[in-house]
Structure formats: C-alpha cells, structure tokens
Amino acid sequence: MSGENRVADLQGRLADAGYIAERGLSATLLLFTDLQRPLLLEGDAGVGKTEIARVLAQVFDCPLIRLQCYEGLDVNAAVYEWNYQHQLLAIKLLEQGKINPSDAEQQIFSKKYLLQRPLLQAITQPRPPVLLIDEIDRADEEFEAYLLELLSDFQISVPELGTISAVTRPFVVLTSNGTRELSDALRRRCLYHYVEYPEFDKELRIVNARVPEIGPQLARQVVAFVQELRKLDLRKKPGIAETLDWAAALLRLEVPSLDADPQVLLDSLVCLLKTREDSAGLGQFEVERLVARAV
Amino acid sequence: MNAAAFQGPADPGLAAALQGRLVEFVRLARAHDFHVGVAEEIDAQHVALSCGLTDSQRLRWGLQALLCSDRDEWERFDQLFDAYWRPANMHSGYQARPAAPVDRELTQQGERPGGQGAAAEADATGSAEGADAAEGGTREGASVGEHLATADFQLLADSGQMRAMEHLVERLARKMRRRLIRRQRVHRQGRRIHLRGTLRQCLRFGGMPLQLAFRRRCRRQPRLILIVDVSRSMSLYSTVFLRFARGIVNAFRDAAAFAFHTRLVPVTDSLRQSDLSRMRDSLALISQGWSGGTRIGECLASFNEEYARLLNSRSLVIIVSDGLDTGEPERLARELLRIRGRCRKLIWLNPLLGRSGYEPRSQGMHAALPQLDLFAPAHNLQSLQALEPVLTGL
Questions:
Q1: Nearest CA to CA, how far is B96 from chain A (Å)?
Q2: From the list B1, B65, B185, which residue is nearest A193 (CB)?
Q3: pLDDT band at A175 (very low <50, low <70, confident <90, very high)
C-alpha cells in the first residue's frame, strides 16, 4: 500500500473507532507506529489527547495500559512492588514445613509475589500494548528521568529478580497539559504533536459521530456557538468534551434550536463555562449575540 | 517497520543529494533553536523513507512530529519548512521578522560583550543555509545564552534579545526549583516509621520488626515573596524581573509576587496566567495611572498591614529595587525591620550594584542596609544565578 493510502486507511480506521482525526495527526500516528518512538501530545485540556491513546488501542486491537501521573508518583506505584503481606504469609507457612532455606528464598522472591504496576505490565505483554502516560507534567522531575531510561532501553531491573527486558515494545503515548516545563531530553526522545481545538467541520463531524440523535440543524448551531465562544477571552476555553456534554444536555432538555428558549439555554451553559469569572463575564446580551451568529 | 517497502529514488546520486538536503534541514532547524541533535538527523532519514520524499505534505507532517518539541517550535515549523524546501518563498519567511536586521547589525558592531559568543554565532551561521537562516539563528540557543548571561539587562537593545533574556530568566527560575527539590531529598531524614518499608526490610528476619524503616520527611520548599519595583527609574529592568517573578511564581507552589511604585499591588494571579500577552495586558492595567516618585517605605508598610500573614519562618522575601526613594528613610528602615522580624531571610537585589563605581549612598539604601540579610547585585543573569545557594541554604 502506498504511503498516501496508508494515511487515509488509518484515518478511516480511527473514524470507525469513533475518533475524527485530521490528516496531519493521522500521518503522525502512522509515523509513530513505523518508527516506534514515543509520542508526546500537548494541547489544551479537553481537546482529546487521552482519547487518541484509547482509540489507538482499539484500532490496533491491543490492551490499553494507563499510568496517571501525579505529584509524588514513585516506583512502587508506577513500576512494581513486592506483595509483602503475601510474602510474610508464605514465610510463616514455609516455617512449618521442612524446606531448604535457599529454595524458600527463591520462592518468596519469585514473580508470584511481584505486583505489576503499569510500566512493568506494559513491557511484559505478549502483544505490544498502548501505554498511555497521562499528564506527565504532573509527575516529579525524578520520575521523568526514570521514564527516560525506561523509554530508551525498555527494561526494568528489580534488584531481587534481575533485569526484566521488554517482550514487546509498547506504543507509548505521553500527554502533557503544560503545568510544568518538560525536560529537553524527554522532548527530544519523543515525536511531538500539538493538538489544536478542532475546526468547525471537524467538530461538527465529532458531534454527529458521538451524539447522533441530535440532528443536523442543532448540531450545526451547537458547534458554531462553541466555536464563537472559543474566540472570546475566556479563562478556560471549552474543549470537545464540553461540546459533547452540552450537546447531550440540550438533547436532554429537549431544546429544538438554540434560539428557542433563552433561559434554558443560559442554564445549560454550565456545561461549557467552568469558572466563576467566565460564567459571570458572559451575560445574557453576549449569549444572545452568540446565538444570533450561530443560528 | 516496513521501511523496506519504501526504497529511495533509484538514482543513487540523487538519493545521496536528498539525504544531504535533509541533514542540512535538520541542522537548519537546530540553528533556529529547535531542540534537535544528531540522532534526529538519522531519524529524519527514517521519516523520509517512511513518508516518501515526493509527498511534501506527509514529509512536512513527519518532520514536524520529529523535530518539534513544544508549541512554539510547532508553530514556527511551517515557516521554516517552506523557507527551506520551497525556493520561491525563501526570502519571505525570515526577512519578514521585524527584529532580524537589528540583530545582525549589533553582532557586527560587537556591541554586546563576550566576543566569543559572537564568534560562535558566526560559525553557526556559516554551516546553516545562507543569510536568511543566520538572522533567525542568532536569536537564542546555547552560545547566545552564555554571553547573554553576563550582559547587563539594560543594555539589551532590541526586542529579540529582550525576549531571549526573558526566556532565560524564566527558565532559570524553574531550574532553581528543580535543584532545590533535589537537594532537599538528599538531606532528608526519617521521623516517622514507614510500615510498608519496615515489613519489606524485615522479611529476612521472618517478619519480626527488628530493623525499622522511616518515612522520609521531605523538607518543605521555602515560601518566596518577590516585591518588584516598577517605577520609572527601574523601567529598564522591571520587565525582566517580572518575567523572573513569573518563573518563580509558576515553578514554586508557594510563592507570591508584588509590584510597587507609589503603591503596592499583588501580581501573583496576573503572572500565573499561561497566556503571555494576556499577562502583559493585565500588568499594564495594574500599572496604569501611577505617577510620582517611588515610596518604598509606604509600600512596604501596606505590605506589612495587608499581607504580613504571608510571612512565616519558611518565607524568603526578595525586594528588587534601585533604592531611589522619595519617602522618609526612617520609615523604610522601620518597615524593613518589621518584615525581617517575621521572615527567615530578607534579600535586597539592586540592579545598580552591578555597575562599576556604584555605592549605595542614597539615603533610602543607606537606611535599608543594616536591616538586610543580603544585599546583592541583580543586573545580569549571572547575578541571578548566584542567588541559588542562598535559596538552597534555607
């Protein structure tokens, strides 16, 4: 298959899985599978970064392993941990029987007592999984450094067991919201894609795909309204998730068209405006202006 | 990998030439401050193989994914790509940037200190693609960073240099935090028993808790409070320090920033905004309508009245000002003493101190000196860097 066709093919498969990707992103994803380098996705909250990983897992028909990063994330939570209680219990039981001490030790530090956390899990899968490392910017710098090592060698060493090398190479997707500057080393190791807010057409297709009951007319209005809203000076711009929420809410409220009932519309805006400043700043008049433009 | 499926052009000479062009492009990107290295030169070939050299759109996307590593680079990429691969546009992209010619003149006149840096730039220029490339390339990057480090903030003539400096200053602030945390972890001590760790350690004793493991107490970061003078006499420096404050405020969880002139205004929230232009707007709004001389004493008094709750034994107060005060020196001394009594360390950074021949002889500065823990220059990047041990020494 030629390169051109492969991009279109991947785009189609993503669409089948419920993700509308533009060609640029599809081409990047194709490259990502070809080169097997990690992919770093950046972009505002709610533009569908995490969703990409989920859909990729669906398209490749492989498991998705997710590691949610947070401040203070450590090896015990991310890589592996010994199941101490279980080990202790085993020791006590072994004490009863007559068993050679070195055998006992072997038994206690065996894989049976090893709790696999996402990273270890990801490299020991028989088929390459999609490993999603979500919000890497929230983890500490030390963890980032550790991750860097893992991403280059794909092996983890457990002192008691020895080195565990990757059976298969996972597809690693990292996402970042930019709460902290990532190290240049990590950035360099990754392919990079900046996920923008979708254009009108793309967002319309997303809404139609995800909330099909909404009908073409209202869908157009909803997307046009949100697109206009994003142009305003908001503290937190609504993402795609918000658009979908809002569309679902309007459906639930049985709103036939945006200009039907201003009060209901105003109430439903809680789906889109997520800070006090934004909801206070957007008055009735402003909303009516936006509706007029959208309808 | 199905690289085998994509053989390069049949003609080996052409293939080599294309490879050369590709390597050159990666180097050009490096000259334009993309974070790429030799590894990317090789990977670019893989990308080209996988995307096909003839399909320019796919090649663009592929190289964009490979070479970019943040949003800024992402947005600049298209222009660079067009400038390099499309000869017709060669001159449009980079000459359109307003600051570029100014940059070049400066380099030629050797006005900036640090001749070596200039030489390194000239070198980089030589290897890159012609004149257009050179202009963009002189803006930032390691070599330039080095000689910017010793350049006085007020001597930064054009906006490009200013931006580069602001960028560096912000990065410095972030880096400081990284170091702080690491050092704290090394110094940590155990206080409370860590049960899980104890169990783990005592497996060898059959589970008898003979050897205890301790939960490591992570020392808390200092609380940083920056008070920046934005009066007219400081105007050459205040933008840089506000950027520094921005870096600090964003990097440290516990930090506050204030700007003062004739009165004191908290600017922490404005600085925390991720959008740079919006930050500028709100700072401009804050400083509107200010006039008259600097009244440091009064501003510090209002700090003491309204924000003294921010001060505790972990807090480090940094005042950035030239000390040219129109208020009473006694009042300044009194207020400083009050601050000092409630915080761990009081630091005064004076950009004028970096100038040769300057002595803190102004009345205000004279009165302030005895109350300070540290009086240090802050006229260039190096002097800010020198602050780090002070911060870590907490």
A1: 25
A2: B65
A3: very high
